[in-house]
Design brief:
Layout: E1 5-9, E2 15-19, H1 31-41, H2 47-67, H3 71-82, E3 98-99, E4 102-103, H4 109-119, H5 123-128, H6 133-139, H7 153-163
Antiparallel strand pairs: 1-2, 3-4
Helix pairs in contact: 1-2, 2-3, 2-4, 3-7, 6-7
Length: about 180
C-alpha cells in the first residue's frame, strides 16, 4: 500500500507531515485557512472534488447564513446528488429538488441556491432544530421532512463530510 505524505507549511513557517492511511486532522482555524487545507488535503485522484468544492464554497457559505444548513452539508449533498458536478439531475439542479414530483430545472445556480435554502426553512427542520453537521445529516432522511428517501443517505453524506475533511469547516455559530 502506498503511503501518501502531505507536507503543509503552517502559518508560523513550521512543517507538519501527515501520512495516509491515517486521516489528516488540522487544527480548526479561520475559514480561509480551512478552505485551503481541505483543498490541499484531497488526494490528486479526487481533483474533480477539489474543483467542485472550490467552485461552490461561497454559495454554501451564503446558504448557511441564510437558513443555517452547515456548509459541509450543502457541499456534501450537492456533490453526492451531481457526482461532484458531473451529472446534475436537471440543469442547475444540484440537490435533486422536485416540485409536484418532477425534478426542477433552474435557469441559474443562483436560483437553485435560493430554492435549496427555502427547503430547509420549512417547519419540520425548525422543529428538529439540528445544531451539528451530524444532526443535519440525520435530519435529511427524517420522514417528516423527506428530503432524502434512501435509508443510506445519512451514511453517504457523512462519508463525504469525513473523507474530504468538510467537518473542519467551522459552523456559523462557531465563527461568531
Amino acid at each position: 500500500m502506498k503511503t501518501l505524505i502531505i507536507t503543509i507549511l503552517l502559518l508560523n513557517s513550521t512543517l507538519l507531515s501527515l501520512s495516509y492511511p491515517n486521516k489528516p486532522k488540522a487544527p480548526k482555524i479561520g475559514t480561509s485557512g480551512v478552505r485551503g487545507y481541505i483543498l490541499c488535503s484531497i488526494p490528486k485522484k479526487y481533483d474533480h472534488v477539489s474543483k467542485f468544492i472550490n467552485k461552490h464554497w461561497n454559495a454554501a457559505k451564503a446558504v448557511e447564513l441564510d437558513c443555517g444548513v452547515p456548509m459541509a452539508i450543502s457541499l456534501a449533498v450537492w456533490g453526492l446528488e451531481t457526482q461532484y458536478g458531473k451529472k446534475p439531475v436537471k440543469p442547475n439542479n444540484m440537490g435533486s429538488i422536485k416540485k409536484n414530483h418532477v425534478y426542477v430545472t433552474y435557469n441559474s445556480l443562483s436560483e437553485f441556491y435560493t430554492d435549496f435554502a427555502k427547503v430547509f426553512k420549512q417547519d419540520c427542520y425548525k422543529e428538529m432544530n439540528p445544531q451539528t453537521v451530524k444532526q443535519w445529516a440525520i435530519s435529511l432522511q427524517r420522514v417528516n421532512c423527506t428530503y432524502a428517501m434512501s435509508k443510506k443517505y445519512y451514511s453517504k453524506i457523512m462519508w463525504i463530510v469525513q473523507e474530504f475533511n468538510l467537518d473542519l469547516i467551522p459552523l456559523k455559530s462557531e465563527t461568531k
